[in-house]
Amino acid sequence: IAAHTQPANNTTNKAAPTKTKTKTMVAGTSTNTSLKLLDLTLKPAGAIICSVIGEFTGIGGRQEIAALKAGGCIEIYAIASTSDTNTNTSTDLKLVTRMETNSILRSAVTVRSGGSKRDLLVIGADGGCVSVLDFEGG
After folding, report:
1. Cα 37 from chain centre
2. Distance of CA 73 to the CA centre of its chain
3. pLDDT per residue over 72-104, tens digit each?
4. What is the spatial distance between Cα 18 and Cα 15, in angstroms, rounded to a whole number?
5. Smallest Cα–Cα separation from 66: which of 80, 81, 50, 46?
6. How far is the C-alpha of 101 from the C-alpha of 103, rounded, in Å?
7. Are the CB atoms for 7 and 19 separated by under 8 Å?
8. What is the largest CA-CA distance in the chain?
9. Whole-model pTM?
10. Residues whose CB is less than 8 angstroms from the CB of residue 2 and which lie 6 or more positions away in sequence, other chains included
11. Distance in Å from the first CA to the final CA of the chain
């Protein structure tokens, strides 16, 4: 990387050529540089690859839906039923948590270990990795 700097005194004679100092730096040899990476998704993907139902957060024994999205996102939705005074019942989905994984998710399945009150979410990714996720609270 070449950097050009002008002399500190800008009052040079117009007849005389201005001198420029050239400083060459080799990449990777500077000690005071730092590189920071910010990875964030501006707009989440809308396509759902796979979804499973279970009790992932263990709050009040409610059923929840885990959805794997195309951009590598995992979303947990709570199923909430509400009824009004006219005995009309409506069912809504409320987003409990959302996680970006920076991977391509392929499959999901729920597993409950013996004596547990919550389900575990087992996720398969494109690299052949299997991850077991345990969500706490919500």
Report:
1. 13
2. 7
3. 899 999 988 887 777 788 888 999 889 888 888
4. 9
5. 50
6. 5
7. yes
8. 94
9. 0.64
10. 22, 23, 24
11. 50
